[in-house]
Automatic annotation (TrEMBL):
<dbReference type="GO" id="GO:0046872">
    <property type="term" value="F:metal ion binding"/>
</dbReference>
<dbReference type="GO" id="GO:0050118">
    <property type="term" value="F:N-acetyldiaminopimelate deacetylase activity"/>
</dbReference>
<dbReference type="InterPro" id="IPR036264">
    <property type="entry name" value="Bact_exopeptidase_dim_dom"/>
</dbReference>
<dbReference type="GO" id="GO:0019877">
    <property type="term" value="P:diaminopimelate biosynthetic process"/>
</dbReference>
<dbReference type="Pfam" id="PF07687">
    <property type="entry name" value="M20_dimer"/>
</dbReference>
<dbReference type="InterPro" id="IPR017439">
    <property type="entry name" value="Amidohydrolase"/>
</dbReference>
<feature type="binding site">
    <location>
        <position position="171"/>
    </location>
    <ligand>
        <name>Mn(2+)</name>
    </ligand>
</feature>
<dbReference type="InterPro" id="IPR011650">
    <property type="entry name" value="Peptidase_M20_dimer"/>
</dbReference>
<feature type="binding site">
    <location>
        <position position="372"/>
    </location>
    <ligand>
        <name>Mn(2+)</name>
    </ligand>
</feature>
<feature type="domain" description="Peptidase M20 dimerisation">
    <location>
        <begin position="193"/>
        <end position="291"/>
    </location>
</feature>
<keyword id="KW-0378">Hydrolase</keyword>
<keyword id="KW-0479">Metal-binding</keyword>
<dbReference type="InterPro" id="IPR002933">
    <property type="entry name" value="Peptidase_M20"/>
</dbReference>
<feature type="binding site">
    <location>
        <position position="110"/>
    </location>
    <ligand>
        <name>Mn(2+)</name>
    </ligand>
</feature>
<protein>
    <submittedName>
        <fullName>Peptidase dimerisation domain-containing protein</fullName>
    </submittedName>
</protein>
<feature type="binding site">
    <location>
        <position position="112"/>
    </location>
    <ligand>
        <name>Mn(2+)</name>
    </ligand>
</feature>
<keyword id="KW-0464">Manganese</keyword>
Amino acid sequence: MLSYSNILKRSLDLEISSVADRLIDWRRHLHQHPELSSHEYQTREYIRNSLIDCGNFIFYPVKEPNLIAAIKGNKPGSKIAFKADLDALPIQELVNHSFSSSVPEVMHACGHDAHIAILLGLANVLSKMKDKIEGEIILIFQSAEEIPPSGADDIISTHVLDDIEMIFDLHVNPEIESGIIATKPGPITASIDQFEIEITGQGGHASHPHESIDTIVIGSEIVLALQNIISRKTNPLTPRILTITQFMTPQLTHGLIPSKVILKGNLRTVDDDSRYNIKKLLEKMANGIADAYEAKTDIRMLAGYNATINSEDLALFVEKVAREYLPDGSYRRLAMPYLVGDSFSKYTDHFPGCFISLGVKLNNIDTIEYCHSNRFDIDESSLQNGLKLLTYIAARKTMSLL
Ligand SMILES: [Zn+2]
Ligand SMILES: [Zn+2]
């Protein structure tokens, strides 16, 4: 005789496979109709209508185009949340599909279309299983993930999440084999701080450098010195990156030494001490070098997302769920955090959470096209494992006897 938990599991598996094809349809529709950060109104409407169609969802008021939906069981129980993002990127897609982006210079190149599709799949499964839910499951569709501060502050300030027990975020990863679930306890994404160093010297003719304060030479020394912070002043076992991404001067002629140079870059760390110490060292080195040449500096720091710190308990819980309910070999524990940023840290700053990777790597490819590439593409068959994982996370937390 089948136990109650086996009957429940069978029902969940049936519901998951019944929405499998629709996952791909949703993802393709969204992929074809991408919208930029803070402008995702059509995307929001599409999701809202899909949730109304599947029934049993309520909507909490929130600043648009964010959307917060929830399904409540008839009995009290855990309150948990899942987050997906709405926005695409200002990129011209170069992948040739029948469902490639129909909007010039806008592309879902970070997989947010896939994340929305998976949450729509989850909504459909949960709606069918409503009578089994004890508690409340909240689905967050957040605007502007790609541009800090993102819609996360608007969502958190609604206080809808105040009493949640936990929150999860699934993000695709084209480096990991299709369908594999990967996460780790502790830090999983990095803090990203942008900086600008403006160096003001004395312009002059290229033939008389000794009469100028050469901002090009000073800027070059600063670029090299900043690399030494990473290689010589910080612990090599701690993940951190400092990258200069722009070296600019307003000067257009090749015969003159410019009076001003601006360096731009970003700093990525996963712990507060490194973040603080590297910023201090950056200022000290840039100021010290400029000072030696009698140049002036103006250093501007723009704090981005914090590092995402996964709850130890929840990362182990996700691992357990993946091993128990997904096909053998579907789980991998990550050894190191990613040095990319994600707005999910805004939630893990307040609530226990877990950021999870879903492998979407295509078969038979020579070069991995990373997130934000104009050739970014995913293996859509991975979506079902993503849905299965989130469904069983929800079921284990809100359906008794599973
Ligand atoms: Zn992105
Ligand atoms: Zn993303």
